[in-house]
Write a structure and sequence with these properties.
With 130 residues, this protein is mainly alpha-helical. Helix content is 89%, strand content 0%. The protein has one domain (2-123). The protein is built from four helices and no strands. It is flat, with a radius of gyration of 17 Å.
Length: 130
């Protein structure tokens, strides 16, 4: 599991750097460089969400089904509460901050999932040949 996640991070890093550069250039060109902080908040939130999901998966891997399901649902509730609190604060500050942080959250999360899928598929492809 750890190998898949580390390989996935290496794959996603280039895409995220390019997407971040495009977002920063777009925000700066439109005179909205003040929203770069909201973009960073969305990235950090997504990073914690993905990392806590991976840690939760790793910790429940050896448990029986009922205990694993209970712990997974509790962890999911905590993660969703974290996302709700951050986005609720952002929407109360400004809708622009909310949308910027939500879009950056979705970009990071989608990139992480696609990287994980690609890495898992590649490793599965090579593991079948052995």
């Amino acid at each position: 599991m750890r190998d898949i996640i580390l390989t996935s991070i290496r794959r996603v890093k280039k895409f995220l750097m390019a997407a971040t550069l495009l977002l920063v250039i777009n925000l700066a060109a439109n005179g909205r460089a003040d929203l770069i902080g909201a973009m960073i908040i969305g990235y950090v939130l997504a990073m914690f969400y993905v990392a806590s999901t991976a840690a939760r998966l790793h910790s429940i891997a050896g448990l029986d089904q009922a205990t694993a399901k209970r712990r997974w649902l509790f962890g999911l509730a905590l993660r969703l509460l974290m996302v709700f609190v951050v986005f609720n604060i952002a929407v109360h500050i400004s809708t622009e901050i909310f949308f910027t942080s939500a879009v950056s959250f979705m970009i990071f999360y989608a990139a992480a999932l696609l990287g994980l899928i690609m890495t898992s598929y590649t490793q599965k492809l090579f593991d079948d040949g052995d």
